[in-house]
């Protein structure tokens, strides 16, 4: 999938997500205030944070898909990881705010059960957010975007928080009013955990972490299959946004010309990129292959 098509997919899922989150924020916010539900108000703020992070996602991936320029010769793909970090930090700040608000309600001791209408708002939110999670995660995996996948988990965390909100409001209506603010605190912990996980994943990718071993093995096999390549050595692969950069050494027959050695490297690179469209670039160093010399004690044993 080329970058333009990839960005179109992101734009489509982002616009749908923004429409859903605007509606849910308004509905949960209004009903939360009128019904007097701390947990539902917390849930509304979570949906509002989803709206903000979707805007960040759209802008971040727009930058990520810009073509290479003089200052960014490899392109702007790492903007995806920066976007993931912003989403994660937004989640963490939202979680702390929600948790503090619920805690203040508990401290005040003025806890009243919410109105029954709060239940219907939560059920609507749960259905909407779970549907958005499934749609967003499907798109994120198809286009192999960590930022879109991070946004999908943000949607899922909102669905989880709606479950907690439902339990809290239900408990409050059954005669346990403390359940409502306690659910708000539980929601904040769920959001905080999601934010920290996304942040750590983004840091890992920004540290040029190697991909899964099977990806590296596939690259080795593709290079080894190229005509003229005798051996593939010292393969290094690092993440670059949604792409990978590859550095490797190959060895060729020492008696061939420089041009023929260059041809073997070019064929190896072509094979690698053809087999994996996530490879952005491949740098290959060509070495001559020499037979391994036997150890001196082995030679001595042969003469005996």
Automatic annotation (TrEMBL):
Membrane spanning residue stretches: 12-33, 118-137, 158-176, 182-202
Residues covered by the Cation efflux protein transmembrane domain: 15-207
InterPro entries for this protein: Cation_efflux, Cation_efflux_CTD, Cation_efflux_CTD_sf, Cation_efflux_TM, Cation_efflux_TMD_sf, CDF_Transporter
Matches recorded under Gene3D superfamilies: Cation efflux protein transmembrane domain (1.20.1510.10), Cation efflux protein, cytoplasmic domain (3.30.70.1350)
Chief localization: membrane
SUPFAM superfamilies with a match to the protein in the record: Cation efflux protein cytoplasmic domain-like, Cation efflux protein transmembrane domain-like
Membrane topology summary: Multi-pass membrane protein
Taxonomy, superkingdom: Bacteria
UniProt keyword terms in alphabetical order: Membrane, Transmembrane, Transmembrane helix, Transport
Subcellular location: Membrane
Residue span, Cation efflux protein cytoplasmic domain: 211-289
Family listed: Belongs to the cation diffusion facilitator (CDF) transporter (TC 2.A.4) family.
Protein name: Cation diffusion facilitator family transporter
């Amino acid at each position: 999938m080329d970058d333009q098509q990839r960005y179109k997919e992101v734009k489509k899922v982002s616009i749908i997500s923004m429409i859903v989150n605007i509606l849910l924020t308004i509905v949960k916010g209004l009903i939360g205030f009128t019904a007097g539900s701390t947990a539902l108000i917390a849930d509304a703020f979570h949906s509002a944070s989803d709206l903000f992070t979707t805007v960040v996602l759209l802008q971040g991936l727009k930058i990520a898909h810009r073509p290479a320029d003089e200052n960014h010769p490899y392109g702007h793909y790492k903007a995806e990881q920066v976007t993931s970090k912003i989403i994660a930090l937004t989640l963490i700040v939202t979680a702390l705010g929600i948790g503090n608000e619920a805690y203040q309600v508990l401290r005040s001791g003025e806890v009243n059960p919410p109105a029954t209408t709060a239940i219907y708002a939560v059920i609507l939110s749960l259905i909407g957010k779970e549907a958005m999670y499934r749609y967003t995660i499907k798109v994120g995996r198809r286009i192999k975007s960590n930022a879109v996948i991070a946004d999908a988990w943000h949607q899922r965390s909102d669905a989880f928080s709606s479950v907690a909100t439902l339990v809290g409001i239900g408990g409050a209506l059954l005669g346990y009013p403390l359940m409502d603010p306690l659910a708000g605190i539980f929601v904040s912990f769920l959001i905080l955990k999601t934010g920290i996980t996304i942040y750590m994943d983004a840091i890992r990718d920004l540290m040029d972490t190697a991909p899964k071993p099977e990806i590296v093995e596939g690259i080795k096999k593709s290079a080894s299959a190229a005509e003229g390549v005798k051996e593939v050595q010292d393969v290094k692969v690092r993440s670059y946004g949604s792409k990978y950069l590859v550095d490797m050494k190959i060895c060729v027959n020492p008696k061939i010309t420089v041009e023929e050695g260059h041809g073997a490297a070019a064929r190896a690179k072509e094979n690698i990129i053809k087999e994996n469209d996530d490879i952005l670039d491949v740098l290959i160093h060509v070495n001559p292959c020499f037979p391994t010399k036997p150890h001196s004690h082995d030679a001595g044993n042969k003469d005996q």
